[in-house]
């Protein structure tokens, strides 16, 4: 039996949120693997496991910034475009890592990638070759993955449509467990015996805190600070936890979130939190800087507000909904975000985000 530690997709919170319609076709290209290398490559615990030197870490962080600027907005693209983007960026990252790593380091990079993919590592060409998987096995595994994707997509649909889904986390875990059981059960004893060298020693993925890109710098080409101007560069905010919220001042859902942001600023600024409002317009009135500034004053907003006149920041961040708030850690990495009213229909979203802010402040 394949040890559970080697099936780590869920523990990394990479999820199985893939295009079920594409996967249902059953072709190899349709299986969307989580971009685990992009996700794990920004964590000290992973760098330590790869035994990277300080020089290599600096080189890697420098490389990731332009990749992140493309990866982050790609999350809202159609599945085929998103997959093409993550595939291209992953290839660039792999090439750079291979050039900077010695053979032992590179072997560990590959092992952690496979561990993070869990059972879906069977769709990697090098794994399929090493295990000598048959065409029939791969076809069966693709069908299993497609069934998983369809089940997860239906669970997501129910949640996004506002349906009450009891025990959603348990249902997701059961779906993933079923995929694990079906794929492992489809391997021969001889194939399972070959997994050890491909996976190496178990890595504790609970140490991985960052799985999202570095936050984009705030663009100032067509945007103007209405109050408390900043440089917009994350390098100038290192050591601070930042909440960036996108809003439109006439949006009723946005207005209902504003008191929460104000309370965060009031309660946590002294502990190192910076709140930034980005007003991205939807209506003609929201393109009038004077009206936006007057509304901010009327709402009692005391933190920096950026007038995103042409929505350049909205696009750079891949934002799709008013309101949306992102939480950025002390090193400038996006850690989580919330779309819509935080306390919609009794959801304790504000408390969850406040708790996350406190966790980030304590890091």
UniProtKB/TrEMBL annotation:
<dbReference type="InterPro" id="IPR000866">
    <property type="entry name" value="AhpC/TSA"/>
</dbReference>
<protein>
    <submittedName>
        <fullName>Thiol-disulfide oxidoreductase ResA</fullName>
    </submittedName>
</protein>
<dbReference type="InterPro" id="IPR013766">
    <property type="entry name" value="Thioredoxin_domain"/>
</dbReference>
<dbReference type="InterPro" id="IPR050553">
    <property type="entry name" value="Thioredoxin_ResA/DsbE_sf"/>
</dbReference>
<keyword id="KW-0732">Signal</keyword>
<dbReference type="Pfam" id="PF00578">
    <property type="entry name" value="AhpC-TSA"/>
</dbReference>
<dbReference type="InterPro" id="IPR036249">
    <property type="entry name" value="Thioredoxin-like_sf"/>
</dbReference>
<feature type="domain" description="Thioredoxin">
    <location>
        <begin position="209"/>
        <end position="362"/>
    </location>
</feature>
<dbReference type="GO" id="GO:0016209">
    <property type="term" value="F:antioxidant activity"/>
</dbReference>
<feature type="signal peptide">
    <location>
        <begin position="1"/>
        <end position="24"/>
    </location>
</feature>
<dbReference type="GO" id="GO:0016491">
    <property type="term" value="F:oxidoreductase activity"/>
</dbReference>
């Amino acid at each position: 039996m394949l040890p559970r530690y080697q099936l780590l997709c869920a523990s990394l919170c990479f999820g199985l949120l893939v295009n079920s319609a594409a996967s249902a076709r059953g072709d190899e290209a349709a299986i969307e693997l989580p971009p685990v290398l992009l996700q794990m490559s920004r964590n000290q615990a992973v760098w330590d496991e790869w035994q990277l030197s300080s020089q290599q870490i600096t080189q890697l962080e420098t490389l990731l910034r332009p990749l992140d600027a493309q990866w982050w907005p790609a999350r809202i693209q159609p599945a085929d475009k998103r997959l093409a983007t993550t595939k291209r960026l992953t290839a660039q990252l792999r090439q750079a890592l291979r050039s900077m790593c010695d053979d032992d380091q590179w072997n560990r990079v590959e092992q952690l990638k496979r561990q993070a993919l869990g059972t879906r590592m069977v769709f990697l060409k090098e794994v399929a070759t090493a295990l000598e998987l048959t065409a029939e096995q791969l076809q069966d595994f693709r069908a299993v993955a497609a069934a998983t994707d369809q089940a997860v997509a239906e669970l997501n649909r129910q949640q996004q449509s506002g349906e009450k889904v009891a025990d959603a986390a348990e249902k997701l875990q059961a779906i993933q467990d079923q995929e694990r059981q079906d794929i492992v059960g489809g391997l021969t004893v001889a194939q399972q015996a070959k997994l050890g060298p491909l996976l190496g020693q178990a890595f504790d993925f609970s140490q991985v805190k960052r799985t999202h890109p570095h936050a984009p710098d705030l663009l100032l080409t067509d945007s103007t600070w209405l109050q408390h101007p900043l440089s917009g560069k994350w390098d100038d905010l290192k050591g601070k936890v930042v909440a960036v919220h996108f809003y439109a001042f006439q949006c009723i859902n946005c207005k209902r979130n504003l008191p929460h942001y104000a309370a965060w600023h009031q309660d946590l600024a002294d502990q190192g939190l910076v709140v930034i409002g980005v007003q991205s317009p939807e209506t003609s009135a929201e393109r009038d800087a004077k009206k936006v500034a007057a509304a901010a004053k009327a709402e009692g907003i005391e933190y920096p507000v950026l007038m995103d006149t042409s929505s350049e920041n909205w696009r750079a961040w891949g934002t799709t909904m008013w309101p949306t708030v992102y939480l950025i850690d002390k090193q400038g990495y996006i850690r989580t975000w919330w779309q819509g009213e935080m306390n919609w229909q009794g959801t304790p979203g504000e408390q969850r985000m406040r708790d996350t802010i406190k966790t980030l402040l304590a890091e």
